[in-house]
């Protein structure tokens, strides 16, 4: 395309001479003879055009004017047609179309298991910690269960290190083929199991999809130690990685250590940003944005480096790129006495109703005496509520035990400040196993703390129970192999029937048991060490009827150890997502 300014700087001699109209002549004037061409082109001559009569010129002028008027009329008519089309009803071909739904095949199941609890040795300037070896008695192990199809085919599944190096292969990946129909007769359901596999780092349980269905699989990592600063029990379900996670219950006050561990099991780098909420509102912390977590790695962040001196701290983890898992290793040290250790796992996203099961409360009188001592304010049970929005939330808290609802001191209604963490005491309730519900007209996140140990001079332990999902069908619930274990089910409203089917170390799915639980109550089932001579490694749990919630409560005989593991969501099938075309 020529430069629009290419003639603007030309000299007059360079510019083409303007074309001037020939002077008009009188109508009667006529040349006497034709002018001859003197240009010297081959000596030829050229006759000048004959003059146009005046009447012909007038006719030509009226023709040009008529053409212009006709064009104007056509333009006006076209504009009228456009305007009429704009106000007329649209035809079927011009109506806006809704976004179609496209079937998305179910993907593989991935669960990232946290590594063992480790003691901080020190930290340089910044937030990346250094760890010292754990105590001599510390043990960490993973229990995993992968369920077969109804035809008895196990999905390709394996337990591996986060770096990808294999640890245990449960079943080889099957070639792509149609899943055979189950043979008539006895059910062919079976399981692939990993019973109590010792681990010393972050591990990953993965299972391949089967026939557009996500496989039913689950794993749990448990840690125990009888000595050292990290004495106690901590357990966490191996979690599915995500891009948005909420963790409630961290504490960075004196004697409390909170380390956030971010793991990336995908092949895509993850860039993580942290939103921090304290008792007085949101916390703006330099260094909480743009944290890079490379594929196959774990990044540890000391939360005291971002938000020091916070007795109540919630963390929202958001990642772009690869999804991540997030868990907070929380520990307490009161002077030289260990106050416990736990893994704070993500709970459900903020909602107007939250439910928490598996709360084991101690004797209220003894707890009140212990909490009155200096440094023991966090030794009492409590609910923490985080409101991320701009409006305060009036939250109603209810506690359901074996015999029904128990009244809370203060009536159970509290106003939670917007953008902050609010703590609600659960002290004063009779000892026992409980399920908690909290509801409001404003969305919030929640988790509850329980403690074990009633003497200030002795070691103690604590556990954080996050909010969990409603029970549906076919939840795989792996169970740690040691300790005193309970299945705890809560039904806040209505009535629910819950079936729990034992899965043993020999891969057999045993006969199911059923619990009929009345609304407004909590039921506990003690887990046996083995079933028909084979060690028990997990359950298959399903619920019908009213909304029900469940968890595994883990304790140790004759020790003040405690940990709570909520039942994870069940497997997802084929999904349909809207597809929007655009640019």
What does this structure look like?
With about 575 residues, the chain is mainly beta. The protein has one domain (about 105-170, about 190-580). Helix content is about 5%, strand content about 45%. Strands 21, 22, 23, 24, 25, 26, 27 and 28 form an 8-stranded antiparallel beta sheet that branches. The protein is globular and about 60 Å long.
Summarize model confidence as the mean pLDDT.
84
Q: What is the β-strand count?
A: 38
Poorly predicted ranges (pLDDT <50, ≥5 residues)? 1-93
**How many helices?**
2
Strand content: 35-45%
What count of structural domains? 1
Helix and strand composition category: mainly beta
Query: Helical percent range?
Result: under 10%
Largest sheet: 8 strands, antiparallel
Task: Give the overall silhouette.
Answer: globular
Instruction: Give me the Rg, rounded.
Output: 38 Å
- N-C termini distance: 28 Å
């Amino acid at each position: 395309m020529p430069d629009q300014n290419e003639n603007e700087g030309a000299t007059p001699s360079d510019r083409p001479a303007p074309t001037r109209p020939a002077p008009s002549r009188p109508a009667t004037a006529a040349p006497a003879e034709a002018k001859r061409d003197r240009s010297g082109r081959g000596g030829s001559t050229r006759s000048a055009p004959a003059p146009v009569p005046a009447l012909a010129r007038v006719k030509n002028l009226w023709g040009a004017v008529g053409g212009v008027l006709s064009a104007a009329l056509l333009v006006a008519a076209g504009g009228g047609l456009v305007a009429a089309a704009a106000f007329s009803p649209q035809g079927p071909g011009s109506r806006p179309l809704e976004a179609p739904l496209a079937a998305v095949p179910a993907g593989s199941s991935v669960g990232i298991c946290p590594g063992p609890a480790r003691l901080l040795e020190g930290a340089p300037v910044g937030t990346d910690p250094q760890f010292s070896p754990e105590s001599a008695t510390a043990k960490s192990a993973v229990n995993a269960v992968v369920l077969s199809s109804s035809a008895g085919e196990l999905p390709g599944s394996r337990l591996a290190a986060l770096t990808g190096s294999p640890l245990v292969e449960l079943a080889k990946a099957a070639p792509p083929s149609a899943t055979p129909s189950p043979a008539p007769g006895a059910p062919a359901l079976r399981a692939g199991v990993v019973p109590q596999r010792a681990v010393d780092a972050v591990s990953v349980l993965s299972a391949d999809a089967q026939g557009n269905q996500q496989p039913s699989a689950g794993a749990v990592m448990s840690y125990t130690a009888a000595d050292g600063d990290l004495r106690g029990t901590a357990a966490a379900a191996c979690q599915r990685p995500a891009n948005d996670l909420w963790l409630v219950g961290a504490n960075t006050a004196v004697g409390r250590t909170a380390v956030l561990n971010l793991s990336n099991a995908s092949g895509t780098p993850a860039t993580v940003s942290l939103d921090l909420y304290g008792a007085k509102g949101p916390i703006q912390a330099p260094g909480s944005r743009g944290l890079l977590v490379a594929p196959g790695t774990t990044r540890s962040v000391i939360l005291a480096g971002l938000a020091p001196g916070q007795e109540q701290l919630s963390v929202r983890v958001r990642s772009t790129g690869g999804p991540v898992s997030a868990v907070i290793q929380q520990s307490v040290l009161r002077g030289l006495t260990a106050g416990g250790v736990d893994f704070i796992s993500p709970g459900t996203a903020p909602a107007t109703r939250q439910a928490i099961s598996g709360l084991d409360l101690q004797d209220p009188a003894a707890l009140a005496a212990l909490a009155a001592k200096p440094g023991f304010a966090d030794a009492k049970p409590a609910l923490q509520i985080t409101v991320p929005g701009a409006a305060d939330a009036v939250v109603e808290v209810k506690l359901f035990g074996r015999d029904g609802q128990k009244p809370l001191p203060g009536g159970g209604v509290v106003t939670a400040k917007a953008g902050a963490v609010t703590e609600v005491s659960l002290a004063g309730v009779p000892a026992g196993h409980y399920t908690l519900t909290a509801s409001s007209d404003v969305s919030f996140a929640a988790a509850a703390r329980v403690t074990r140990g009633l003497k200030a001079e002795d070691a103690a332990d604590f556990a954080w129970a996050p909010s969990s999902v409603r029970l549906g069908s076919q939840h795989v619930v792996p169970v740690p192999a040691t300790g005193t274990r309970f299945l705890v089910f809560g039904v806040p409203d209505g009535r629910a029937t819950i079936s729990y089917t034992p899965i043993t170390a020999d891969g057999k799915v045993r006969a199911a048991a059923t619990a009929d639980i009345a609304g407004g109550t909590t039921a506990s089932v003690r887990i046996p060490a083995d079933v028909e001579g084979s060690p028990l490694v997990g359950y298959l749990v399903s619920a019908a009827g009213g909304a029900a919630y469940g968890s595994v409560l883990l304790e140790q005989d004759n020790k003040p150890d405690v940990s709570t593991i909520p039942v994870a969501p069940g497997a997802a099938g084929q999904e349909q997502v809207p597809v929007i075309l655009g640019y």
